[in-house]
């Protein structure tokens, strides 16, 4: 997974097996964590020693699957394909606090507002709680779904856990008693791939889906306030939009007024504005057409949008809101510093982009057996009718079975 984020003044990049942190303000040495050289799971080592040389089921590719940053920007956590859960301290300097192991491979994680708990959602549909204050403690099962979880969020008041799954559901559960479900946010027609509670709008929830739509919810009641199909926002038919559009990133500016939406393998960033007043809460603002396919986007603390592009010449671009549109700032000191520090790791970024669409296999495929049956049945009827037309004399000489049996009885009598 290739993703960008911000942890205080640090620019964060995850690509393939690495997490790279680059300071935007000062010329400091980048922090690099390579999962392939990290501590191994003792359980998997025991299984490897007792096996006959074949690969262990517990081993993985060490690819970073997800990371999360705490609200203060002082903590960061990542999880990888080898089921590690790594907790870092970012300030005043980078330090690995702990390495723990999860039960199943994870898809999303989030810090609690108090930064004393880390919630981890996995592919089996479970959410585990890991302590931050006791970094060596094992995780505790918090709640479960019947299908794969793709995103998890916590309300700013720490009252609700919000989870999104493969079966188009968004579930709002009480944090302290997750068996109590507050509401469901229903309306997507494909898996829900992204969730975010925008800053300064603590009772609203943004969601993105594999159906190419973005929705705004009042999550405590489950009421949908606004819904937009991104295909309808295009002025002309773009070949990219004819395919499945999967929302892979929802990110809001620090003041909560602007929202950027990115779809996987689509070279357009969609901007919306959030408005407390009026009937329309989520309003389309503009579209940003990029010269290369974007790998990820995110807002920094100053409200500027950083875009990671699939281009070795200009891998990073920065955009700031002008009067009516988002304008590129190509000669910014922070941008140049991060770009130069990123270049030694670009081979790793390119390797991670060669992987297939990570959401493509999640689309539901329907099988229509009835139409095939009706087609074959019609074909048999047509063949029988054609046979009768070709041999009318044979059909005329045939007598019904009842008449034939009556004639045989009379002749025998």
UniProtKB/TrEMBL annotation:
Biological processes annotated in GO: tRNA (guanine-N7)-methylation
Pathway participation: tRNA modification; N(7)-methylguanine-tRNA biosynthesis
InterPro entries tied to this protein: Trm82, WD40/YVTN_repeat-like_dom_sf, WD40_repeat_dom_sf, WD40_rpt
Keyword Nucleus in annotation: yes
Subcellular location per the Swiss-Prot or TrEMBL entry: Nucleus
Membrane-crossing residue ranges in chain numbering: none
WD repeats: 185-227
Chain intervals for the UniProt region annotation (Disordered): 40-60, 381-413
Ligase keyword on record: no
Alphabetical UniProt keywords: Nucleus, Repeat, tRNA processing, WD repeat
GO terms for cellular component: cytosol; nucleus; tRNA methyltransferase complex
Composition skew (Basic and acidic residues), residue ranges: 40-50
Main location, first listed in the record: nucleus
Database matches in PANTHER family: TRNA (GUANINE-N(7)-)-METHYLTRANSFERASE NON-CATALYTIC SUBUNIT WDR4 (PTHR16288:SF0), WD40 REPEAT PROTEIN 4 (PTHR16288)
Family of this protein: Belongs to the WD repeat TRM82 family.
HAMAP family: TRM82
Function of the molecule: Required for the formation of N(7)-methylguanine at position 46 (m7G46) in tRNA. In the complex, it is required to stabilize and induce conformational changes of the catalytic subunit.
Protein name: WD repeat domain 4
Organism: Kryptolebias marmoratus (Mangrove killifish)
């Amino acid at each position: 997974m290739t993703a960008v984020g911000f942890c205080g003044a640090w620019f964060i990049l995850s690509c393939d097996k690495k997490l790279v942190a680059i300071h935007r303000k000062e010329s400091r040495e980048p922090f690099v964590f390579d999962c392939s050289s990290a501590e191994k799971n003792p359980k998997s080592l025991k299984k490897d020693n007792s096996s006959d040389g074949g690969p262990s089921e517990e081993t993985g590719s060490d690819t970073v699957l997800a990371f999360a940053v705490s609200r203060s920007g002082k903590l960061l956590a990542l999880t990888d394909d080898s089921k590690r859960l790594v907790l870092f301290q970012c300030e005043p300097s980078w330090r690995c606090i702990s390495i723990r192991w999860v039960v199943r491979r994870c898809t999303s994680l989030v810090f609690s507002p108090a930064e004393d708990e880390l919630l981890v959602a996995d592919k089996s549909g479970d959410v585990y709680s890991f302590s931050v204050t006791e970094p060596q403690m094992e995780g505790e099962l918090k709640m479960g779904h019947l299908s794969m979880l793709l995103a998890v969020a916590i309300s700013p008041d720490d009252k609700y856990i919000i989870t999104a799954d493969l079966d188009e559901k968004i579930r709002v559960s009480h944090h302290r008693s997750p068996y109590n479900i507050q509401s469901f946010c229903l309306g997507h027609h494909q898996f829900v791939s992204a969730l975010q509670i925008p800053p300064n709008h603590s009772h609203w929830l943004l969601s993105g889906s594999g159906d190419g739509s973005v929705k705004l919810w009042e999550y405590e009641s489950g009421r949908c306030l606004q819904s937009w199909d991104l295909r309808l926002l295009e002025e002309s038919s773009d070949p990219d939009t004819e395919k499945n559009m999967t929302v892979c990133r929802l990110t809001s500016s620090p003041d909560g007024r602007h929202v950027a939406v990115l779809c996987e393998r689509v070279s357009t960033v969609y901007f919306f504005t959030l408005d407390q007043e009026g009937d329309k809460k989520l309003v389309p603002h503009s579209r940003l057409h990029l010269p290369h396919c974007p790998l990820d986007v995110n807002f920094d603390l100053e409200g500027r949008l950083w875009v990671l592009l699939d281009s070795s010449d200009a891998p990073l671009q920065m955009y700031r809101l002008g009067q009516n549109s988002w304008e590129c700032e190509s000669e910014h000191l922070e941008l140049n510093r991060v770009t130069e520090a990123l270049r030694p790791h670009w081979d790793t970024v390119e390797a991670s982009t060669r992987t297939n669409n990570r959401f493509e296999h999640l689309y539901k495929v329907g099988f229509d057996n009835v139409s095939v049956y009706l087609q074959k049945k019609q074909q048999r009827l047509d063949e029988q009718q054609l046979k009768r037309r070709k041999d009318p004399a044979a059909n005329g000489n045939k007598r019904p079975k009842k008449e034939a049996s009556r004639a045989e009885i009379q002749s025998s009598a």
